[in-house]
Amino acid sequence: MYNIGDKVKIKKLDAHTNYGGLIAARGMAKNAGREATVTDRRGCEKHIRYRLDVDDGTWQWTDEMLEPAEPAETEITAIEVLKWFAENDLQTRKDMFGGWCNVDDILNEYEPQEIINEIVAYETLKKHEKINMLNTDISAESIQITMQFLSSLLYGTIANRQQ
């Protein structure tokens, strides 16, 4: 069962086949494998029908025709890494990076992809536990860390580590 706003993937459908009380049309079957967003949901229990953005709501879809969209490959930019370091305190960084909390130490100890993976894993866990980040003012320490990290990026610390 999906809700409005959910990302779904359209399954491989055989035209003229019944899927949960609806017959798939050829136009629907052509969308197999495409990802879409649920824009409308109607009905109850076994007879829920969805409309999707992929066809501007033209067709009705059933649960049997859809599956959850796979989470997109997580990409994180240098700016997002900077923002993350600025928003998270020393203890968080220390817990995540085996006692290392200084940005330069983290950069020297971990590969860039490892840093990104740790941040993504941490944020995913936070989301899962429904811990909301507090919107706080950036402290002087956070600004210093941000500047150190930005300097490291500009002078190729990360690029050099990848070579």
Describe this structure in words.
This protein has 163 residues and is of the alpha+beta class. It has helices at 26-29, 78-87, 90-96, 103-109, 112-128, 140-154, 157-162, and strands at residues 7-10, 18-19, 22-23, 35-42, 49-52, 66-68. The strands form two sheets. Strands 5-4-1-6 form a four-stranded antiparallel β-sheet, with no helix packed on it.
Q: Stretches where pLDDT falls below 50 for ≥5 residues?
A: 130-139
How many helix segments?
7
Terminal Cα span = 47 Å
Structural class: alpha+beta
How many E-type strands? 6
Integer tally of domains: 2
Q: What's the Cα radius of gyration?
A: 23 Å
Task: Write a short abstract of this structure.
With 163 residues, this protein is of the alpha+beta class. 40% of the residues lie in helices and 14% in strands.
Secondary-structure topology with pairs:
Blueprint: E1 7-10, E2 18-19, E3 22-23, H1 26-29, E4 35-42, E5 49-52, E6 66-68, H2 78-87, H3 90-96, H4 103-109, H5 112-128, H6 140-154, H7 157-162
Antiparallel strand pairs: 1-4, 1-6, 2-3, 4-5
Helix pairs in contact: 2-6
Labels describing this entry:
2 domains; 14% strand; four-stranded antiparallel sheet; two-stranded antiparallel ribbon
